[in-house]
Amino acid sequence: MEKDSNVGGKTSNTYTGYLGCLLRKCVFATLSVGPIPNHLAFIMDGNRRYAKKHNLKEGAGHNAGFSALMSLLQYCYELGVQYVTVYAFSIDNFKRRPEEVESLMDLMQEKIYKLIEEVSIVDRYGIRICFIGNLKLLKDSVREAAERAMKATAKNSKSVLSVCVAYTSTDEITHAVQESCREKVDAIEQADSYNKEEGNNLLINLVDIEKKMYMVAAPNPDIIIRTSGETRLSNFLLWQSACSHLYSPSALWPELGFWHLVWAVLNFQRDHWYFEKIKKQI
Q1: Closest CA to 245 of 233, 259, 253
Q2: Which pLDDT tens digits describe the chain residue by residue (282 residues)?
Q3: Hey, which of 185, 196, 229, 243 has its CA 20 to 30 A from 99?
């Protein structure tokens, strides 16, 4: 009797999963009539509040958040989004209590390895994983895990997942300016002679700085979604977000789901003409 119950439960789950997949295909086919965003970025806010809300142990909110990330990645890539960027850990987060930072580092390392193990998603959608930020600030074991994930997915070329860790926009911009200055100084030192034309080429311009940005491999985000109802960007992609559509659902990050994504894309499509107009003016 118990065996029959288990079989019936598995059949029910399979049927429900099939219906869910069919529904997503129908909705995405409808959305595809309009412009589809090429790059979605997420500020994953609310993991700790989710744990408190549901009386869960410390770290359980981040586990729920990781599950939400896996589901959203699947939805994004099914829709045809090529680039997804997530804000996982800010440089400012290092200011938290040392024991909390250590716990978050250990959790991050665990999730990085688990991300590689998500073969069904990473391989199915050809996801190349990039870790973006000042990675030397991470503890050695976390940085090694990140490097391992990037190496393991380096040959994937269909989609890109950028994970921003030890990241802030001010650090990214500072890094880009410093690297541009070093490059120009090296060029001056290597030049045999100096004339006015060459001097103009040695000036730092916008292209020089953008080539040195951490996010150089991805286009500017079309949509930035921050959960928990917050409207602040919190030092995330400030350089790249001038023409991004901002969406701030009240849902906490682990609560973010399929219909939130659909609503974000619908709002993006409604305002798409306006943002395209702004881009042409820049």
Answers
A1: 233
A2: 445 545 455 565 666 667 878 889 999 999 999 999 999 999 999 999 999 999 998 788 999 999 999 999 999 999 999 999 999 999 999 998 898 899 889 999 998 988 887 666 888 889 999 999 999 999 999 999 999 999 999 999 999 999 999 999 999 999 999 999 998 888 877 765 555 555 556 788 899 999 999 999 899 999 999 999 999 999 999 999 999 999 999 999 999 999 999 999 999 999 999 888 888 877
A3: 229
Helix axes 258-281, 2-31, angle to 10 degrees: 20
Strand 39-43 and strand 127-132: the pairing is unpaired
- 127-132/83-90 β-pairing: unpaired
Active site residue 45: yes
| Active-site choice (45, 123, 171, 186) | 45
Q: How many residues does this entry show for the chain?
A: 282
DSSP 35: P
pTM: 0.88
Is the separation of the CB atoms in 245 and 262 below 8 Å? no
